[in-house]
């Protein structure tokens, strides 16, 4: 069954998205140098597009990002020029000459000013444009650096609409930052420098702002302590191994009707955090489904579904048919 692609208009509403993109054939193409370039480009393009990068993780064959798209507001010309310079920090002679022309047109509101403004604004405040720019710019760098050509990414990125509330963002962010733990690379995500949490611990103000934003604007020390509780549960200490329990043990607990701590669940590859359409409270998912039906006229039997009773999800609900095999 194909599930509907749900999207709300970011022109009037704030939104958040969990996005995933994989390399072609799932090949392990991204070494540390490539991961570092992609990390920088994520921040660069987020700044240009006017979206907030909450957190991310980059692995050898895919990356995750959690992006908050604020309510769209008018962007003055001086801010458009600043963002343009962010996207082209080392312009060519042609780009520099073009920028001088653009500045002159904007200052006099010349005939080409409106066209240039619209061209930039079309790329801003939209998660699809953000991901498209990131993937295009990284592909150009990667192919040029490695003497290759053709497709780098396997497909169009996957995206899941996420309710921009604190609990939902914290849960998805922890799942993203724990990718390196589930992969068995480290036991504590602060030791993996290609994720948002590690970058924040290392002192990046932009990365810290992302974590503080999803925690309601707390100071960094309080935000870090609170977030580590989400990552590790009581005690905030690292687990040993790639996951807290083996998959077979996980399945046995579920079969017997047991529950596990949320920090334990987040160390398992839960499909609902990567294959869903909408994730949030039941009320939020209901609103998005109603908006989708009104916009498209689609009346298929799709309904919000609570996540399985494995743990205390805090009213997390998803919009998709839940798989029998939930762990991938």
Summarize the structure.
Strands 2-3-1-4-5-7-6 form a 7-stranded mixed beta sheet, with helices on both faces. The chain is built from 13 helices and 7 strands. It has 328 residues and is α+β, with helices and mostly antiparallel strands.
Largest sheet: 7 strands, mixed
Which geometry do the CA atoms define?
Answer: globular
Poorly predicted residue ranges: 1-11, 238-243
Q: What average pLDDT do the residues reach?
A: 85
Distance between the termini: 19 Å
Total DSSP E strands: 7
Give, in spatial order, the strands making up the sheet with the most strands. 2-3-1-4-5-7-6
Write the element-wise H/E pattern from the N-terminal end onward: EHEEHHHHEHHHHHHHEHEE
Share of helix, binned: 40-55%
Helix run count = 13
